[in-house]
Amino acid sequence: MTTRRDGPDTAWFSRLGLGIFIHWGHAASRGWELSWQMVGGVAGQFPPRQPVGCEEYFANADTFDPVNFDAQVWASTIAESGARYVVFTAKHHDGFALWDSALSTYSSARTSVCRRDFVAELLPALRAAGLRVGLYFSIVDWHCPLYPRYTDQTVAKPYIVGRYPVSPGTWASYRRFMLGQLTELLTNYGPIDIVWLDGEFEHSEQEWDFRAIRDHIKAVAPNCLVNDRCKGFGDFRTPEQLLPDETPDGPWEQCLTMNESWSYVPDDTAWKSSRELIVHLVETVSAGGNLLLDVGPTGDGSFPPPAVERLAAIGRWIRAHDAALRELEPGLRPGQCRLPTARRRDRGTERVFVYLTMDPGPTLHVHGLPVRRIRGVSLVADGRPLRYTAHPSIADIQSRTPDPSGDVVITLSPPTEELVPVVAIDISLG
Fold first, then answer.
1. How do 194-198 and 132-138 pair as beta strands?
2. pLDDT tens digits, 147-190
3. 20 CB contacts (<8 Å, ≥6 apart)?
């Protein structure tokens, strides 16, 4: 899968560091995995989900009443985490719109209890907090009769990729409906930085006509980025739940859950620790990507306490290590250091960052550095200098190389209490 080269400017997106993904909908009020609970999860995918009847699932929308939703609280919590952008699920596969759509009554603004436009409430708060805003939009719609609507008789449970209800006679009408909802989101809520499409796994590329979808978005929002699930016409890539084997060419982000669920599932207690999440952030950023970390708000509109705790811990770490996350260049070769690394150049000095995602012991060995140009070694968090010795290679000594390379051995004791310490090695460029 490739990303397009003639799209909008992606420079602002590259190397943002941390973003927050928000998966939310009426399913949260029952602790159901968003959309997927209706089909019992995906065959072969862990963890399985207890299937819920399609009509029971759809009817739950009329009970949705998130009385504790506060856009300002969401925005401040996210900003304090150190994130720089947010992607909010305006509509997932279940078709429930979290904005006031004139094209559907299956919307948070038109249910019997809720009657709120969450896109209208949230986006201004995020922008005021200095965050870039993106909207997740599923191009499938399991509720819409034109798609056609899912029923217990027409869909496999658990879901089998490639098997779904089909209604060729209404396909053109459905595509007009889908593009109409996209137009509402892109024209009624101020500038949208990212459209995060999903659902491309149902129907063929010919049926979707991704070029037409991308051209439509460009016509109404020329500067908006689109992800790679607009197949062949995406501006950035979106691997899920793990780092790709090879660093993607061009802008990319890794999408990651805090536990094993995208949305709020109270029985899912497999929370990753704050340190684990920071390690994921470091591994992604040092490889040139952004980490889009997921939060599943509860049915009452609040963030789950474990998520709040982790976002706060990540924020404290980012504030102490901000310089090691911004405007980075590729780090050392794998043979030079067995830990993640990155570089940053500024005013005649190159700073090499080494992220201690594993405990190397009392000393850290880094190979192949220009040892006569080392100007100092320190901890990024507090600037504390670290003792080190530099050893030029025997071959460079014997050949009288004026700028020899060799090993730097850094003393790390006493240990730091940082969740993931970062060592900075300053090297003169002149």
1. parallel
2. 999 999 999 999 999 999 999 999 999 999 999 999 999 999 99
3. 78, 81, 83, 85, 86, 87, 292, 293, 294, 295, 311
Q: Are 115 and 64 in contact (CB under 8 A)?
A: no
Separation CA 144–CA 25 (nearest Å): 16
**All domains of the chain, ordered by start, with CATH?**
18-324 (3.20.20.80), 329-428 (2.60.40)
Contact 86, 130 (CB under 8 A): no
By the 8 A CB rule, do 155 and 92 touch? no
DSSP state letter for 237: B
Would you mind telling me the total number of residues written for the chain in this entry?
430
Burial pattern 219-256, b for ≥16 Cβ within 10 A else e, equals eebeebbbbbbbbebbbbbbbeeeeeeeebebbbbbbb
What are 59-73's pLDDT values in tens digits? 999 999 999 999 999
Give CA separation, 340 vs 63, 331, 365, 367, in Å: 47, 8, 13, 14
- Phi first, then psi: what are they for 351, rounded to 5°? -110, 120
Amino acid letter for position 177: F
Averaged pLDDT, 103-125? 97
